[in-house]
Amino acid sequence: MNVPPPGSPKAGPSIPGNGEADELSSPPFLERGAGGKQYILCGDVGGTKTLLGLARDGRLIADRRYANADFQDFSGVLARFLADTQTDPTKLARACFAVAGPIADDGASARLTNLPWSLVAADLARDFRLPTPRLVNDFAAAAIGAVTAASDTLVCLQAGEPLAGSPRLVVGAGTGLGMAIVVPEGKRWSCIPGEGGHVAFAPADEQQAALWRHLQQRHGRVTWERVVSGPGLAAIHVFLGGPELTPEQVASMALADRASKARRALEIFLAAYGAYAGDMALACLPRGGVYLSGGIAGRLLDLLPGSGFLPAFNAKAEHADIAARMPVHVATDPRLGLLGAVILALE
What we know:
Elements: E1 2-3, E2 39-45, E3 49-56, E4 59-67, H1 74-84, E5 92-99, E6 109-111, E7 118-120, H2 121-128, E8 134-137, H3 138-147, E9 154-158, E10 168-173, E11 177-185, E12 188-194, H4 206-219, H5 230-239, H6 247-256, H7 261-284, E13 289-293, H8 295-299, H9 309-314, H10 320-324, E14 328-331, H11 336-345
Parallel strand pairs: 2-5, 5-8, 10-13, 13-14
Antiparallel strand pairs: 1-12, 2-3, 3-4, 6-7, 9-14, 10-11, 11-12
Helix pairs in contact: 3-11, 5-6, 5-7, 6-7
């Protein structure tokens, strides 16, 4: 996927839709008589939530978040958004939806992996009078959002020695483990999605080797995603003798009690996350930077600098000096997929 060069679309405030503007608001999104189709409809459709937004001039001007459990299908979410923002679809120039699931080879349809929803571009265009939407992989959109993020939404873990024109790597632990390589091509970016989360897990010490055996008995082949993900964090907690908890519960306990099994599980998780990110970085040499996306990194932001993440990232034997020269950032904006969809819509 080719996209424009970096220059983050910063989000503006939420403002009213096509009705009358109140005294404290900006003019309506799609004001009647504004002339021309100048707005972009964008979306990030996940397994549990959907973010939808409107953009103008490459900048997100409003966004809404919806719980998927409240709707029977994506059309219901989209209808609610258009009503909430009083959007006139005939004023839309483009549309792009990032979907957490496989995209058909022709790009005309997509289905979610963890929800029985399907999106068909032609049907959405017909039913809602939209420009035919572009459907893209959600992590590809998040990767574009990360590498074009505003500097004030990035937290630097390792300054490194960045090289202009070099590839960038985006990894993100959440429900699963995503990765993508973003390569500069002239004045544009090309995003290469990957399935690096399904590469075989490589234990770094005896405890991780025991964790590998624990997971192998339950799943057969052990991938990095079995360890570096929300479910992976919960699995590590069970491995250490803790009760079965949700990833959110494990994280909360770990943050509250340094002596808990949950805290030890988190320490193992972060060391494994660093090792994985460093290994993926050696595979593509992203001297432009490594970016961590996803909710887990954002929630653990205070712990990351002093954790085992960076030591494991840089523990690459004879190639440790190469790893140390790679910048590492945490992309903290939770709307990366939405922002990436805006940019991809402008292709």
